[in-house]
Specification:
By secondary structure, the protein is an all-beta fold. It is 0% helix and 39% strand. It has no helices and twelve strands. It has strands at residues 2-3, 10-13, 18-20, 25-30, 33-35, 56-58, 73-74, 82-88, 91-94, 99-103, 109-115, 122-123. It has a six-stranded antiparallel sheet with strand order 6-3-2-11-10-7, with no helix packed on it. It has a two-stranded antiparallel sheet with strand order 1-12. It has a two-stranded antiparallel ribbon with strand order 4-5.
Length: 124
Amino acid sequence: MSLVLVAGAVIQCTHQGRLTLAAGDPRVTVKGKGVVLAGKENGLVFGSPTTPAPGMISPCTATTPAGVPQPCALTPATPDGWSRKLTVGGTPVLLATASGVTASGAGPGRWTVSDPGQNVLETL
């Protein structure tokens, strides 16, 4: 069993970037926060010291080989981070075990969940 991600969950990249997931699906809520559906993380960017991103807690320190900031962009979570039991409109919710690859100027990295945003609802 793993905790379900909700709006306000925090994800992080391998280059110290941290980002709050702002959007959740209001059809299923936990303590008033919508659950985060698989795919909603795709394309989010952590932001850099010079270009903050919405929801940025701390900037990604990734740079190009020339030293230009190029923060990590998220790719979809791998299926092992999707719920096998809880879906909304046929789409699985993301779990605290979610992770995936990032693309940045420093090359590929990883993103993981550092805080699911709630501690009440668990599922498989």
